[in-house]
């Protein structure tokens, strides 16, 4: 039950301007697989080849590096801690990182509050002294709740054992789909139950879900890929 969808931008002006001068950036830092897909699709649409990326170094998180490799690009930095914060930690170890330029392809978030993950990432890069160019690369928007009436009714009836979120924006979009807290609290965050029903991809999604009012009981320890998330849920189910 997707709560969000990713789609093409309505306006490519900022992205196109960055791609036309892509060889002026020292780094390109990807924070998601969707960003990688949209970036290379637009590069192709503009008729720009991979040679234009020769001068750039690349950051990717976890198994997103594999998707980058599928486009013929090797990730120069894959953080041990698979998160935007992990990228900051690794970049901070590089001598003379200050004043180096970095392009950050990000989602344009529509219809839901923008999570603080990307703003915090940008702030972290700037704190390192890097010259940051942040460009919308794809669009993330909330789906119409009316297409999920069956699923939402199952949640209201307490017939769903686990609600699994892989990102903060999914949590925010879910909250917009339900009419009131009472629609889901009995199966998700009620203190009357053992509260073993909300699963989050990693600690950052979990922390933001908690800020939005959820009690989180399942958090993947290995959040470099969805395999670790699935394993965390499976281990909970075996208890």
Give a short summary of the structure:
The chain is an alpha/beta fold.
Structural summary, described in words:
It contains ten helices and eight strands. Strand 4, helix 5 and strand 5 form a beta-alpha-beta unit. The protein has 239 residues and is α/β, with parallel strands linked by helices. The chain folds into two domains: 139 residues, Rossmann fold (3-Layer(aba) Sandwich), CATH 3.40.50; 94 residues, Rossmann fold, CATH 3.40.50.10090. The strands form two sheets. A five-stranded mixed sheet has the order 1-5-4-2-3. Strands 6-7-8 form a three-stranded parallel sheet, sandwiched between helices. It starts with a strand and ends with a helix. The longest helix is centred in the first third of the chain and has 13 residues.
Total count of strands: 8
Task: Report, as a whole number of angstroms, the end-to-end distance.
Answer: 25 Å
Strand-pairing-aware structural class: alpha/beta
What is the third-level CATH name, the topology of the largest domain?
Rossmann fold
* Gyration radius, in Å: 19 Å
Gross CATH architecture of the largest domain: 3-Layer(aba) Sandwich
Largest sheet: 5 strands, mixed
The 3D shape can be described as globular
Low-confidence stretches: 188-196
Mean pLDDT level? 88
Number of domains: 2
Percentage of residues in DSSP E strands: 15-25%
Strands of the widest sheet, in order across it, are: 1-5-4-2-3
Report the top-level CATH class of the largest domain. Alpha Beta
Order of helices and strands: EHEHEHHEHEHEHHEHEH
Number of helices: 10
Helix share of residues? Answer: 25-40%
